[in-house]
Design a protein that fits this description.
Length: 280
């Protein structure tokens, strides 16, 4: 199993201004350093949790479809993960875009949506054939099965008048329930963080909003800092800031402790985790 990031997220889930406030930095001299450390801290959080924080599109590459071994229901369990399920490594799963495979004749085929079912509620999300169907036979060669999917909690947006323009691979539909959060400033008024709103209109990444009661929302300013549709959990964002603080404070592989003793800083090695290659 291997993966490829085919549409990376735009920006970070924590604004540079919020990061600097956490570090008690008031000048701009070290902005590039702080942003680089922030990226490293965010990558560490994603590696440890297998969570995709800002929405991104991934491609999972398999050498074959998982072998069918019966449905294996195990009552009274309420969630069944059969052996032939495809498990998608990054969470939370938003949508499966496509399942493509090379057939035995060497032709690229796409599975019809009617052929499989997606459980996007459990973590990790899984895909199985629908009842009464099985996975097709793929050509026996490496990388013959490709699953393209979108995962993540939130996307960046900007406000123009009363229209939100979202940057990212996720599209919302009319009457979808959405929440927002801000980093480093304030949301466009009158939006409130982590409050339910409805999508009123949707058109090519541009959205207007209404209240849960159906009243149209007029934005009175563009807000400050960075805005997000969807919410990256507070616990993850707080962990990132704590890791950022440690990276910024020490900035060396080792620290001098009390009585002159020296200790390695474990989080420094963690910066390499996203880039490690495990050979088969």
């Amino acid at each position: 199993m291997s993966e490829k990031l085919i549409l990376p997220p735009v920006g970070e889930c924590i604004d540079l201004g919020e990061a600097k406030l956490h570090l008690r930095v008031t000048d701009d001299v070290q902005d590039s350093l702080i942003l680089g450390l922030l990226i490293g801290a965010r990558q560490a959080a994603e590696m440890k949790t297998r969570n995709q924080l800002l929405h991104a599109r991934w491609r999972l590459v398999l050498d074959r479809f998982p072998a069918f071994s019966g449905y294996g229901y195990s009552y009274p369990d309420t969630v069944n993960v059969p052996a032939h399920a495809i498990c998608l490594p990054h969470a939370p799963l938003v949508e499966v875009e496509s399942i493509d495979y090379t057939d035995t004749a060497g032709n690229l085929q796409s599975l019809d949506l009617a052929d499989y079912v997606v459980n996007d509620v459990i973590t990790p999300g899984i895909i199985t054939p629908k009842f009464g169907r099985i996975w097709p036979i793929a050509q026996p060669e490496i990388g013959s099965v490709r699953v393209t999917y979108t995962a993540g909690y939130a996307s960046r947006f900007t406000a123009t008048g009363s229209t939100l323009r979202v940057t990212g691979p996720v599209e919302w539909l009319t009457d979808d329930v959405v929440q927002f959060y801000n980093s480093g400033g304030a949301l466009p008024a009158p939006l409130q963080p982590q409050t339910n709103y409805l999508i009123a209109t949707a058109s090519a990444g541009a959205y207007t909003l209404k209240t849960m009661a159906g009243a149209s929302i007029t934005l009175t300013d563009t807000g400050t800092g960075s805005h997000y549709i969807g919410v990256v959990p507070d616990g993850i964002r707080n962990w990132i800031k704590l890791r950022l603080g440690s990276l910024y404070t020490h900035r060396e592989e080792q620290a001098v402790l009390s009585r002159g003793s020296i200790a390695d800083l474990p989080f420094v090695e963690g910066l390499l985790d996203p880039y490690r290659v495990d050979l088969p």
